[in-house]
Design goal:
single chain; alpha+beta; four-stranded antiparallel sheet; 10 strands; about 30% helix
Amino acid sequence: MKPSRLLIALLAGLLLAAVALGAAAPLGHPAPDWLHGLWRGALLGLGLLALLDALWLRRLPAPALVRELPGHLALDRWGEVLLRVAPAARGGWLELYDHVPAELEYQGLPQRLRPPAGQGVELSYRIRPRQRGDSAFARCEVGLPSPLGLWQARRYVELPGNTRIYPDF
């Protein structure tokens, strides 16, 4: 789990306010006590919100995914892989990255999308085999935002799949 840009911006704003409050007294313009109390309350409130948001995010499941691979691919020819994201109860941004085997070149990953609440979505990307043989896909990586947008977590969805690579005739 990592902090989002929103959480970092809010913390930076509070840091700037703290610097301004601390620098006011040496400059001859002491800040009133209620302003210090307001700053402490904002810091405490943000800390509690961030904690609750992180706990909420930890309980969220990864979305269900389905990968459609071509049964076979021609060497050095582009093919297409389709990923389907199952409908979710809540909307929000997702960042998808399929762990493509090393013998395949790919274009179009990662992808960031926003499926509407209650609706699924499809995305595709291109792959090009660089050597013959079997190619095994293992999992997908999903970047999930927290409900309040203060955190982002990575979920790994096991999604095995195989395709065979033949010479281009």
